[in-house]
């Protein structure tokens, strides 16, 4: 039972870190190694100065939906972890971690919705000056998709996890 508890906790922390990276890093769409776009900025690398030059993205309704859903996913997963820690020390023996599991499932569903919206509407989200057909999805987009099954699985495991002595 202790191994399962350690496994679920580590899975939770790993998915939470992946959600933070997917939400904050600058690689949801990549045109080439020196130009990319994320949920917040369109960036290009300036070789002469050796720095990234970033401009805020054009705010579309689809982009705002993806931003909100990814932030909600991070919030749900963070609240889930804090509630899990609280329940771990205060819950009576034999109790189930329902609230923790439901928060994780909601985090997975919001991450799924965000990644799906970005997939279906990336032409409206990306800047008008760049052609979406000349680029590819970046690693943050892939991390968001990888988080979805991990969050859902950890949520189900939390729902079935009982507190033992």
Automatic annotation (TrEMBL):
InterPro entries: PMP-22/EMP/MP20-like, PMP22/EMP/MP20/Claudin, PMP22_EMP_MP20. The keyword Membrane applies. PROSITE patterns: PMP22_1. It is found in: Membrane. GO terms for cellular component: plasma membrane. Pfam families: PMP22_Claudin. The chain crosses the membrane at residues 62-84, 96-121, 141-161. It is a multi-pass membrane protein. Keywords: Glycoprotein, Membrane, Transmembrane, Transmembrane helix. The keyword Glycoprotein applies. It comes from the Eukaryota. Belongs to the PMP-22/EMP/MP20 family. Probably involved in cell proliferation and cell-cell interactions. This is Epithelial membrane protein 3. It comes from Cyprinodon variegatus. The lineage of its organism: Eukaryota, Metazoa, Chordata, Craniata, Vertebrata.
